[in-house]
Amino acid sequence: SYVKATETPSETKFNDVSANDWFASAVDYVTGKGMMNGTGTGKFSPADSTTRAMLMTVIARYAGEDTTGGATWYEKGMNWAKAKGVSDGTNPNADITREQLVTMLYRYAKASGKDVSVGKDTNILSYADATTVSEYAVPAMQWACGAGIVNGANGKLNPQNNATRAEGAAILMRFCEMSK
Asked: The whole model's pTM is what?
């Protein structure tokens, strides 16, 4: 495997994650906890989109659910997510938006008895694109911002953008650390 001489690989030794990438510690965290895996021979693919199936499986793993087996790699995670009210299970192979990602985490947190009131009074209007957050996702986005799970980028939440694997890893790490 090839790593540029100017880059240091992350602890997990993914060829496409260097130690100085903003998401390196998040990748190490989620892969170290078995929540996310690489995408093939030494790759994490941080710029690739996260799918709904990936997130359902990751949250199920975080909850301690065995996600192995099934007709598809995500079947058990999807069935768990549907049973717990985390997702309706539709479009599992579709890319997940940032607002959908935080909404699934919010639903999981709420269903598992975690305090989600932290963001109830959070004003997300300071973000330039706050009005583009879908109505269903506003409480989740307020919670995620209030809890420090989502920080935005350049004054924007980018709720309609597809969540990259790097962003997903970072949001998941912050969620797990907040949930301790």
From this structure: 0.88
